[in-house]
Amino acid sequence: MLGFAKGLGYTLKKLSEKKVTHSYPDVPYPMPPRFRGIQHFSPEKCIVCNQCARICPTQCIQLTGKPHPDPEKKGKIIDTYDINFEICILCDLCTEVCPTEAIVMTNNFELAAYSRDELYKDLKWLDDNNTNVREEN
Amino acid sequence: MEQLLQQSTSLSTVMMFAAGAVVLLLIVLGFVTYAIYFERKVIGWMQLRVGPNRVGPLGLLQTVADVAKLLLKEDTRPKHADKALFALAPVLAYAPAFAVLAVIPFTDTLHFADLGVGILYYIALSGITVLGVITAGWASNNKYSLIGGLRSAAQMISYEVPLVMSVVGIILMTGSLNLKEIVYAQQDVWNIVPQFLGFIVFIIAAQAELNRTPFDLPEAESELVAGYHVEYSGFRFAMFMLAEYVYMFGMGALVTILFLGGWLPIHPALDFIPPVVWFILKFSLYVFFQFWLRATMPRLRADQLMSFAWKGLLPLALVNIMLTAIFISYQSGMM
Amino acid sequence: MQMRTEPTALSTTISPDTGIRTEEMLLNVGPQHPSTHGVFRLIVKIDGETITEANPVIGYLHRGTEKLAEDLNYTQIIPYTDRLDYVSAMTNNYVLCHAVETMMGLEIPERAEFLRLIAMELNRIASHLVWWGTYLLDIGAMSPFLYAFRDREMILDLFNELCGARMTFNYMRIGGVKWDAPPGWIDKVKEFVQYMKKQLPSYHNLVTGNEIFINRLKGIGKFDAQTALDYSLSGVMLRCTGIRWDLRKDEPYCIYDRFDFDVPVATEGDCMARYLLRMAEIEQSLRILEQALEQFPSEGEIMGKVPRVIRPPVGETFVRIEAPRGEIGVYIASQGKDKPWRLKFRRPSFNNLQILPELLKGENIANMVAILGSIDIVLGEVDA
Fold first, then answer.
1. Quick one: which H or E segment has residue A40?
2. Is the terminal CB of chain B with fewer CB neighbours within 10 Å at N or C?
């Protein structure tokens, strides 16, 4: 009987205690600086080294480069860059290997979409996704 | 009310009766709506959550929205279910739950039928609900609901015995089965004091009768998914839920009347508070206790449940009857 | 024992006294059942409410991690290990890194070792809290679940700050860890340890003393030490039978040998013993954490010297560590390439689950839930 009483006492005490619920959609939930949300990609920094596509464990990154328009300069510039967010697992490896920090993480995590097609993020979308960009990568 | 019931039957009196019943039904539905709301709120607070707060101010319309959803939902029936019984079961479960309320006196003047055998009527009718539960379990043609139905049959029948036995002490003391007279007999001291043992047995057995934690085996979510009403949806499911909460209303009222002195004030000096407020207060206390238990207790196992009823509660109830009988005989100078 | 997937024929008996015919019944529990902790399926043959035979069916969450790993280089496999035992991803991260490091003979910097250990022990507490909450939910009490998840949330927030994810951490790397502790993090962990120490007794107040709870667990799902060894059980499932075997003590890895802690052992071998052991393990984890946080080096490297491309030498290795659910092991066969030739996980949940049909025989349905819960499985790990 003592066990019952102790348990009942515990729950009764909790009745007036401070609640821990976040009012999440009403109040935005702040994520710590290292949080891994969806990537931001800046095409001007990319050197088309292909490392991100190679390290990706789920092969969700596809990119193509084209020769530099200025014939004086060597190397390539990025032409298309797509991340298939249906299979991206946000493992952070692409941002880790990128030598120029062309691809970085952001804190944006509200990614629900009505159509699977919307989860196919192309270069423009990733370039425009430039809010809450992570400092350390 | 009383004069009404004495009148000869005519169209107008029948209409009056019907209107009275509808009003009570509405009150009960209102109670159920807000009992569910408060249950969710209280349990939410105990679990450090805020509970429903989105629909309407403070979430007050949450249950209304839920019920509306249930009513609008498609009424599904498994292909191989027994059509007739499947439809009958919710009615069987609900009708007696509502019928028992006819004998409950809320105050001195506010009551419906004033039956001489009020308590007997309550217990007899509430026994019918178990039929609805078994029927539901059987008719659904689902193994989980069958097990749930059988469990609740075993449980409700076994716990009815100690439930009735625990009341016998009060009947002996009062010398009446009439609920009003039982309240009048508590003018000096509430039954909870002389009948404390009976009270404990009654509370536990009532818990099992209501299929509520820690005796919620028939619908044990983690074992039987939802027990006997696993195949029910929409309005039929709502009927089962309604029956459960209306029984809680009935049982709360019964506990208040039998043990907590009904509408009587806690001290004669507090007489200025209207009796119906006293009734509601005591009644709410019991309902809160239900929610509190639900937030704390784990569930018993079926075999432990049965042995507890027959080996624990029943002997206790019998001891209570014995003690009461001896005490009364002693008082009246027979010993 | 022969493994069956199809149940045997149902038997019918006619009672000699009453002439009533009774029939056994097949009950399909799962894969969508609230207490199978995921997509586990159990086909039980019941006679009334008594189980006469139980056939587990697994594989609903099979993703072929081991086969996939053969096409991935070692760094790429780490995120996949997060998804095995997703309740305790840190230990999974560690075991893979540890295996590769053992093969290559890498030196791990001190600070990285400390960070790994703190992460693993925090994760052990988080994992046990999930177990505690869900187990009580199985038993029928709903509040403990929320209390446990509130406290686990604090650990997940700590992890979120440390590595940017709450469940699938991908925190450890071969040769070290990805992130150093952010400023002030160690103090936050210290605070949490103190908080958790206060919280534990209240858990016991709420649940452990409850008479209904004790009656539900005492003497249920009992087995002895020999059975446990025969089924190659590990972790709490082994220690509840009186065998003192904890790899943190017996085959120290990481830097566990530097800390002072006990290995809780019980001899009853029933669900209650397993419950108490897991609760005691939280206490011991807190003890380890306290010492580790005290000795945490103020500075240092977090990555060792690792070649740019990780190519373990030709050969094979097997390492094992103590995960919250038991011994998790990795077998790697390498042919000197950057990808494993064969990779095999010894998943404790999978091994521990083998004993279930044996334990369920003759029990009733309510006990089934109690026993299954006390094994503490995570389906991501069982099905790999």
1. strand A39-41
2. C
Residue C1 has pLDDT above 50, yes or no: no
Lowest mean pLDDT among A88-92, B176-180, C290-294: B176-180
Instruction: Give φ, ψ of C27 to 5 degrees.
Output: -120, 125
Is residue C7 situated within a structural domain? Answer: no
Tell me which residue in A8, A18, A21 faces B292 most closely, judged by beta carbons.
A8
CATH number of the domain bearing residue C284: 1.10.645.10
Pair (C77, C50) in one structural domain: no
Q: Give me the DSSP letters along C264-307.
A: ---SS-SHHHHHHHHHHHHHHHHHHHHHHHHH--SS--SB----
User: For residue C375, is it within any domain?
Assistant: yes
Same domain, C112 and C140: yes
Do C52 and C112 reside in the same domain of the chain? no
Please tell me whether the overall predicted TM-score, pTM, comes out greater than 0.90 for this model.
Answer: no
Share of chain B above pLDDT 90, in %: 0
Residues A90/A93/A96/A102 CA torsion (nearest 10 deg) = -70
Buried/exposed code over B67-98 (b: 16+ C-beta within 10 A; e: otherwise): beebeeeeeebeeebbeebbebbbebbbbbbb
Identity at B69, one-letter amino acid code: K
Query: Is C5 inside any structural domain?
Result: no
Number of Cβ pairs < 8 A linking chain A and chain B: 33
Same domain for C296 and C167: yes
Which residue in A8, A10, A14, A15 has the most chain B C-beta atoms within 10 A of its own C-beta, making it the best mutation to test that interface? Answer: A15
C39 plus C160 within the same structural domain = no
Question: What is the architecture, at CATH level 2, of domain A43-130?
Answer: 2-Layer Sandwich (3.30)
Taking the C-alpha atoms of residue C281 and residue C236, their distance in angstroms, rounded to an integer, is 9
Q: Is residue B3 scored above 70 in pLDDT?
A: no
Same domain? For C78 and C43 the reply is: no
**Residue B100 reports pLDDT greater than 90:** no
* CA B192/CA B189 separation, integer angstroms: 8
Question: Does residue B261 contact residue B285 with C-beta atoms inside 8 Å?
Answer: no
What's the whole-number mean pLDDT along residues A3-22?
A: 81
Q: Which domain holds residue C18?
A: 12-57
Same domain, C16 and C94: no
- Same domain, residue pair C35 and C96: no
Q: In chain A, what residues touch C209 (CB-CB under 8 Å)?
A: 2-3, 6-7
What's the total number of domains in chain C? Answer: 2
The answer to whether the beta carbons of residues C40 and C31 sit under 8 Å apart is yes
Interface of C with B (CB under 8 A): 25-28, 33-35, 49, 136-143, 146-147, 150, 206-207, 210, 212-213, 215-216, 364-369
CA distance A37 to chain B (A): 27
* Residue C6 resides in a domain: no
Contact check, Cβ <8 Å, C79/A91? yes
Residue B88 Cα, gap to closest chain C Cα (Å): 26
Q: What does residue C342 show for φ and ψ, rounded to 5 degrees?
A: -150, 140
Q: What is the 3-state secondary structure (H, E, C) of chain B?
A: CHHHHHCCCCHHHHHHHHHHHHHHHHHHHHHHHHHHHHHHHHHHHHCCCCCCCCCCHHHCCHHHHHHHHHHHCCCCCCCCCCHHHHHHHHHHHHHHHHHHHHHCCCCCCCCCCCCCCHHHHHHHHHCCHHHHHHHHHHHCCCHHHHHHHHHHHHHHHHHHHHHHHHHHHHHHHHCCCCHHHHHHCCCCCCCCCCCHHHHHHHHHHHHHHCCCCCCCHHHCHHHHCCHHHCCCCHHHHHHHHHHHHHHHHHHHHHHHHHCCCCCCCCCHHHCCCCHHHHHHHHHHHHHHHHHHHHHHCCCCCHHHHHHHHHHHHHHHHHHHHHHHHHHHHHHCCCC
Residue C28: CB partners within 8 Å, gap ≥ 6?
B143, C41, C42, C43
